[in-house]
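Task card 7
Instruction: Convert sequence to structure tokens.
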Amino acid sequence: MRAQRRPGPTASPRTRRELVLILDFGSQYTQLIARRVRELGVYSEVVRGDTPLAEIAAKKPSALILSGSPASGYRAEAPMPDAGIYALGKPLLGICYGFQATMQLQGGRLAKAPRAEYGTATFVLDGRSPLFAGVPKRFRAWMSHGDEVQGLGPGWIKVAHTSNCAFAAARHETLPFHLIQFHPEVVHSLYGKQVLRNFLFRVARLEGGWSVKSFLRQAVADIRAEVGDGHILCGLSGGVDSTVAATLCHRAVGDRLVCVLVDHGLLRMGEAEEVARELGARRGLNLRVVDARERFLTKLANVTDPEAKRKIIGAEFIAVFEEEARRLGPIEFLAQGTLYPDVIESASAGWGSQVIKTHHNVGGLPERMHLKLVEPLRRLFKDEVRELGRALGLPAHLVERHPFPGPGLAVRTLGAVNASDLETLRQADAIFIEELRRAKWYDRTWQAFAVLLPVATVGVKGDERSYEKVIALRAVNSADGMTADWTRLPASLLGRVASRIANEVRGVNRVVYDCTSKPPATIEWE
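Output:
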């Protein structure tokens, strides 16, 4: 008997463009849905939950996923998808609030639950559904809802329940629509990935096969189509994102790319020289280093608000790039290493989402620019960018480098920025990174850095009273920067770093370690 092939992504190249469009209603888990779909080999994008039907149809999605939300679907102000999406007939998966909103629009009954469900619950299947192929009849799943569906609309069939929720899953009688109350995207739902796989390959019958390598081929073609015969100036900081963006643009347009490193006085110790050596001399990129330290520090003088810092730096970056473009011209395009988390944190992705901070590549740009933006990494997460860098042939020491913010040390020097404090921070940061490498913890940590606090504390140095500044050390582990957990560095390592900083860096007498995860904190302090 011939073995039946398990549904999943095919190894052969795709014969059609596939896109899973995720309608975001403000759930904290929305970006996880996008990541899980990509991990399964299908490209996904996130749009606002209330995106008009015409815009959704124009994207030609292969399938739709409706996310969760902190809202209550039965309230007048609740966000709702355009009711026309159901007439598209596209395979659809409603998750948590996506289930409830669909029932609200499809004739079901929705109300506040007598008993809310938060955390794991036992999910019990009552009927057959391709969404649960290969899944036990009873399994633990992650719930997060205070409202519930109390009655299904016409044409809908109950599929599952929990002890507190009579309608924990449902499907449409004839259309490829499936609704679930639990969150399959979180690791606490043990069979969540299987449910998503079933939706993609059994329900939506997608071929899969999307990968960073396939993205590379398409990205090169997209850059060439966007730029035509034009020339690109790429803002290059030496970080992973800008390095990959520059290398990608170089593959697309060759000698019509010029890279500009703006030394704004906010770089780490020896960074400008290292970038020029690694990417200019060794990697063959046409790289120009612009000394703009004085102009940036003058603009930042006495500025303490983090958002103001980011906007000043973003505007000044563009001013420098436009000056260089005129000098080196003709140059019509500016390439940046903007990533998906930058976009998400800089603009509200959906109802209930909040602007966390303005990324200088996104919200920090001036409204009027003479250069057209090229952002080839705008829809990728950090780990995908690293994979893309490896596919481009970049060496490990460049690809695995810790993230570094565009505003540089300005957002790690809390309060007003000045040359003296920046030098203090540079020295402390260099010691921290040196000791991490020596102890072989650098590659086991996603991001690590020092922060200079705008406070002074009493200490003792050489039997004398000191009143000097405080350095905070920050180290986190993450996959994409959307969430992060603080790194449990050995006490002996932290003690060694603290001792060296207090003894070797003038003006510092205290070192502390930040053991806060994201959320509730962000990774950077500003």
